[in-house]
Amino acid sequence: MDAEAKDKAEAEAKTVITVVIPYVKKFALGNELKYAIASWLHLFQYPLFNIVIIGDGEEEESLKNKEDGQVPITLIAHACTSDNPQVDLIEKLKLAIAVPEVSDRFIFAADDIYLVSPVMLADIETLKIKGITNEKSYTGIKAENYKRTAKLLGMSSYPCHEIHLPVLFEKEKWIELLETYPQLNEGGYFFTSVYFCYFFRHFVPIVLDWDKDIYLLPVHSSHPEEQTFGKFISRKKFLTTAKEGFSKWLRNYLACLYNRKEWMKQ
Description:
Strand content: 15-25%
Protein name: Glycosyltransferase 2-like domain-containing protein
Organism: termite gut metagenome
Oligomer: single chain
Largest sheet: 5 strands, mixed
Number of domains: 1
CATH superfamily: Spore Coat Polysaccharide Biosynthesis Protein SpsA, Chain A
CATH topology: Spore Coat Polysaccharide Biosynthesis Protein SpsA, Chain A
Number of helices: 10
Distance between the termini: 48 Å
């Protein structure tokens, strides 16, 4: 390793990265938050990070755990502002940008995303889309969010960066973007797509295909066929669930994975 590369590696080792997890208790699937936290503590391969929960006050031991004092976990209270997720999330995002507990570069995650194999920062930083969004992609509230986003971007079809995976944001970039598009402050936009389309328009992203890629495994069944589950999970970095998928079977699997076998008795 040359001197420049060594200096860069040492600087990165000293740079704290914050994992921000927005949380709304009434929308949560039981105690999913503590499993999400445990997954970051156990599998995120970054030398120095902290976790900040922005939400309405989940009083679990998982928020008080310091994992032997190595990873600070902070709860910043924030009441849900809207049943439109994109309205509430932009408020939580703006709070993350404003508070000193969140690093200048930070990971924006979710309480129902679980790491299932070792993850580096580069895995999160890599640009990903789930395809091209158009007027047929959504219904209901999401369709209204799409219309506002498409109008703001000036494109009826645009790369969809709403991938339900952790993403890496920068505070300075968000400050610039909110000044450029002040209407984003009102919420109701797919703001992750706006961010990446604005700053990384000419970069070629990975197009996700859960059946083939190495990133996200969605679980919808309360008890998946174990051989099929094992085949997919062995080559994935993240897992997410629908309501039925966050079953005792899956919770026990995650508890074993994160060395939290005492949770299997709960």
